[in-house]
């Protein structure tokens, strides 16, 4: 996400920091570079112009130039402005608890509406709601099947009526939800290649009938300014309460995320970060700005860890680490937990300070696969007591996992030093009192 833009900002700030003292001239130069970077990331030109003017004015007008750390001050300024154009504080969606909530999803063909429908159903179910998905796309025969398959996989009910019209389906779904005690209806609508009268008419009719609490405009982030222009047109016609930018896991340059609010007046509410139903994140402007500027996103990382990591298991693990009983089997379990959280590269990119360096590090999941293979080729006793792994055992494990004896040696050595480090960390944490977030984190 935002990789290119991130790299560009990194270079601009490095240049600035190398200057020792900032002058009006090199601030102007940096602002010009920022402007170019944003334009290349496909941010709307009017937004860029405004952004640059504000940064320039604040950088020159305030105490930035005279401060002890002008470079850092400048970074902070850009960070704050980025946060502000994306909407400042995130809006928490609060669903009603005393009646059925309705959310309508709309957008162009293939933007990710149906996927987002399932993602939101899962998201709100995690918060204790009981979602029902309504299949209102009658134009593509496979659309209903797609939603039904997703529903079945997640155990979420889908309202289907292959003979009715979209408006009727939406209405009947809300009634069914009331009857069956579901608390949220997610309406999946049909996509079109372009915004057309028929589509708008149908959508307006659906909205007038079911009176949704939220209308989310779903846009493919990869399409950049096109997505923003369609969003603006859409908003004029129907109005929406939030945008969902999908496919942010691809190489979307960021333009859409940075422009939608300014152009339409409505903020991004969620981002899609994967094809699977758990690939959805709430959009936090502040965290996103940190990510763009390569400052990492530790809060999202902790949140994701909390969602995936089993609390009881991690407490047991903490005890084991403290007693120095951490085994290769535990290590394997941890690796699998991390894999559940996402790709290693993606996770590391969220760690402050690491973002920019990752490119050359070539961190990929093959390393994890290799380690997993090696541990899986060990007997249980070897995993519990790695000291017994002698030369001949090493040969056997290497042959079994398609690796070399050197690989096994490396793994064992890394495991040893990791154990030492972990013990040290729990000691420090113990003194300070481990925070709940830390306890939930895997130990590396
Ligand atoms: N990588 C990635 N792929 C996504 C994401 N969201 C959706 N997709 C993929 O995009 C394609 C289209 O998604 P759908 O949910 O079917 O899109 P839609 O808007 O319902 O499409 P129509 O009903 O045809 O208008 C599918 O292949 C999805 O798997 C995302 O956040 N990341
Ligand atoms: Mg669809």
Task: Please provide a written account of the structure.
By secondary structure, this protein is of the alpha/beta class. The chain has three domains: 3-85, Up-down Bundle (Four Helix Bundle (Hemerythrin (Met), subunit A)); 101-295, P-loop containing nucleotide triphosphate hydrolases (Rossmann fold), CATH 3.40.50; 301-440, Signal recognition particle, SRP54 subunit, M-domain (434 Repressor (Amino-terminal Domain), Orthogonal Bundle). The protein has 21 helices and eight strands. The chain has helices spanning 3-17, 24-40, 45-61, 70-85, 113-126, 141-154, 166-180, 197-210, 225-237, 255-264, 285-292, 298-308, 311-322, 328-341, 344-349, 358-361, 365-376, 380-384, 391-401, 405-432, 436-440; strands at 101-107, 131-135, 158-159, 184-188, 214-220, 242-246, 268-272, 280-282. It has an eight-stranded mixed sheet with strand order 3-2-4-1-5-6-7-8, with helices on both faces. β7 (268-272) and β8 (280-282) form a beta hairpin. α1 (3-17) runs antiparallel to α2 (24-40), α2 (24-40) runs antiparallel to α3 and α19 crosses α20. The longest helix is centred in the C-terminal third of the chain and has 28 residues, at 405-432. It is flat. The two termini are 23 Å apart. The model is unreliable at 432-444 (pLDDT under 50). Bound molecules: guanosine-5'-triphosphate (GTP) and magnesium ion. The site of guanosine-5'-triphosphate has 21 residues, from α5.
């Amino acid at each position: 996400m935002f990789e290119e833009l991130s790299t560009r900002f990194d270079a601009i700030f490095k240049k600035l920091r190398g200057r020792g003292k900032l002058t009006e001239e090199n601030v102007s130069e940096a602002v010009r570079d920022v402007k170019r970077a944003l334009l290349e990331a496909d941010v709307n030109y009017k937004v860029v112009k405004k952004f640059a003017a504000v940064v320039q004015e604040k950088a020159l007008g305030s105490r930035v130039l005279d401060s002890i750390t002008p470079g850092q001050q400048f970074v902070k300024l850009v960070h704050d402005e980025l946060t502000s154009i994306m909407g400042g504080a995130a809006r928490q969606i609060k669903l009603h608890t005393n009646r059925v909530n309705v959310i309508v999803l709309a957008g162009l063909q293939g933007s990710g509406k149906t996927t987002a429908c399932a993602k939101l159903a899962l998201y709100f179910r995690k918060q204790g709601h009981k979602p029902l998905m309504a299949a209102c796309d009658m134009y593509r025969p496979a659309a209903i099947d797609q939603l039904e398959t997703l529903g079945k996989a997640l155990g979420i009910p889908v309202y289907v009526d292959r003979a009715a019209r979209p408006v009727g389906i939406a209405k009947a779904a809300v009634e069914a939800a009331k009857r069956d005690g579901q608390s949220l209806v997610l309406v999946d609508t049909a996509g079109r290649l372009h915004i057309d009268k028929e589509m708008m008419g149908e959508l307006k009719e659906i909205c007038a009938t079911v009176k949704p609490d939220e209308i989310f405009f779903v846009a493919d982030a990869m399409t950049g300014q096109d997505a923003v222009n369609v969003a603006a047109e859409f908003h004029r016609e129907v109005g929406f309460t939030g945008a969902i930018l999908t496919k942010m896991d691809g190489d979307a340059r960021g333009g859409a995320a940075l422009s939608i609010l300014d152009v339409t007046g409505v903020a991004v509410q969620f981002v899609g970060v994967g094809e699977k139903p758990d690939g959805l994140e709430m959009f936090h402007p502040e965290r996103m700005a940190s990510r763009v500027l390569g400052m990492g996103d530790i809060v999202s990382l902790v949140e994701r860890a909390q969602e995936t990591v089993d609390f009881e298991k991690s407490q047991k693990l903490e005890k084991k680490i403290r007693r120095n009983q951490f085994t290769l089997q535990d290590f394997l379990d941890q690796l699998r937990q991390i894999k559940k959280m996402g790709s290693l590269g993606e996770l590391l990119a969220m760690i402050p300070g690491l973002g920019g360096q990752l490119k050359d590090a070539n961190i990929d999941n093959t390393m994890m696969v290799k380690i997993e293979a090696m541990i899986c080729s060990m007997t249980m006793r070897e995993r519990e007591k790695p000291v017994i792994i002698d030369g001949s055992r090493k040969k056997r494990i290497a042959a079994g996992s398609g690796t070399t004896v050197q690989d096994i040696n490396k793994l064992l050595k890394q495991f040893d030093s990791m154990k030492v480090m972990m013990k040290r960390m729990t000691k420090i944490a113990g003194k300070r009192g481990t925070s709940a977030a830390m306890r939930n984190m895997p130990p590396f």
